[in-house]
Amino acid sequence: MHLRLVVSVVVVALLALAGPRAHARGSEFGEAVHADRTLDAWVADLAAPDVERRRGAAFACWALRRDLVPHAAAVARACADDDPYVRSTASKALESLGFRGAAAFPVLVRAYADAAPDRREALAAACLAAMPRAVGAAEVALVLPWLGDADPARRAFARTVLSAAGGTAGPAAATALAAALAAACDAGPEDGPEVVALRGTLAAVDPVGSLASDEREQRLAALRVLDAGAADPPPAVVAAVVALLTDPEDDVRAGAVVVTSTILMGRDPAVRAIASPAVVAAWKGSPRGEARRYLPLCLARAAKDHAPALDALREALASSEDGVVAESLLAVRELDPLPDDLLARAVRELRGRSSERRTAATYVLRRAGGAAAEACVAPLVVACFDADPAMRRAAGEALGACGAPDATVAAVVRAALAAHRDHATESGGLEALAAVGTGAPEDVAVARERAADGLHPATRLLALELVLRWDWASAEHERAVLAAACLADDPSERAQAWAVVRALAAAKVPLGPWAATLAPSDAPLRIGLRCALVRCLAGDPRPSVVASDVVRVGHRLGMLSELSNLSTADEMEAESVLEPLLASREPAVRAAAAFAFRHLGFSAELAADALARMAASDPDLSIRPTAAATVALLRRRGMTVPDVAGPTK
Q1: CA 141, 127, 162 angle in degrees (round to 5)?
Q2: What whole-number distance in Å separates Cα of residue 446 and Cα of residue 466?
Q3: 181 torsion bin: left (phi>0), alpha (psi -120 to 50), beta (else)
Q4: Cβ distance 402 to 377 under 8 Å?
Q5: In the chain, at which end, N or C, are there fewer CB atoms within 10 A of the end residue's CB?
Q6: How many beta carbons lie within 10 A of that of residue 219, not counting itself?
Q7: E strand or H helix at 261, and its extent?
Q8: DSSP per residue over 488-526, as a string?
Q9: Residue 553 has what pLDDT?
């Protein structure tokens, strides 16, 4: 029996690498099938008396996990099975659903309450994955007594559930957490992991009370929870955060500044209207310290609709503190439009003595446009010869952002590259040359030299891009080098090479002659390939030729029609890449994209309308059944796909 269990675990591991399509398929009508049995039949077997049938059912649920959502609660009960293989496999199947398996959550919590210690790990893992956006009151009441449990795993599980419940957990949960926190502080060090975890949970459940706490550590914990959250805080929380901008403790004030700039100032105008006057007042009375250094970002964001904040930002730029001025310069980038006096201030800072302030000034100049950009070019060219390598890089990157093709400026950039042989100068100088170079023979010569002898793969590949852009017809060697770099052993070098491919595609450089040689094996590079080819389809001068290459290479390498091996984390990015292909002029591309969407689980919201229209009225009659099958599958998975009338006869 033990041998069979080991073999079964090995099989699951191998199948995880191969992808579920090797053992799961759609029937003639698109229904999920494994070993010639439907998913409904396998789910029913999860409650069978025979352990071998339950094991087979658990494995089938894992293999058909993309279609498992309607059966999440039934699979959750299997996570408490007597057999360890059934427990772990069912848990893995639910974990793959993420929050889409929220229906399993109440079942998992109740099962955890009665489970023996050796069965809790699988239940906790599945429960964490299926955590819904709104935890119910029944689950909160069930886990509250576990805060004082002797088993640390049960205490941790209770904290996880309560943290997910947040403010909806209610006053009773806040009281219980405060009592557990006091007991933990009495039993161990105040910076111990149990105390830290309880502080975070209490902050999630009672943010207003935590922000107003007499304990500095609890106020900091509440600010950390808010900084990590993405939800719009209610008015009471906004007011409590704003009050901490004048807290007596510098680290608390700094935390309040961070939350104000990242959470409050990015929200609706009503929230900024509450926070902006407080930010200006905090700047006026702020002593030296970390909080004062980071207040300028709040001021810049408040200045969008609160004029006194812009005056306060000008005061910060005139400060004698280098750190405050540097942060103020970085904050200026938030302003749109960029005031002329602040742009002029950034230009003056390029000649200052503080390297931190000079570097920050280059980031402001990147935002310059029109006539203002022309005024920035000269000081940035001078900064390309700065004694500080980091400044030379920053100046080159800024020149690349606001410069335009100019033979004179390009000559100066080439001189800077010749004067300083270091990675920082090469990186910034090539960025500048990409913007101000004209493709003159001298520009091509410098690019060829750095492509062959650059100090870093990234700079060599950037130089390759310039050679290919300016001299594609005679760059056979560079094309070969780039193609080889896309298959290099070093993952970072491959990723950089694909960045060049995307840039070439954006510049409408034909990729067809060597696209078939590019076959990266890891997911990020597959996504890079799709990005490059999609951009080719959108802008290449010969779209029909490139489209044919895409289909041929895609079918051969599994890039378009065989996307079932994409991980869940890749689905949203893959969706945005595939969706434009549905509008391709090439029928084969549209068909491949429509087929590919059925492998993307529940991540097909962008394409739902397009797929429905394609199923009803695609000009190519042969494509409509493919799109219709995908639409039917998405609907069975619980997605809302509109009904679109077909063409009238």
Answers
A1: 35
A2: 10
A3: alpha
A4: yes
A5: C
A6: 24
A7: none
A8: -SSHHHHHHHHHHHHHHHHTT---HHHHTT----SHHHH
A9: 39
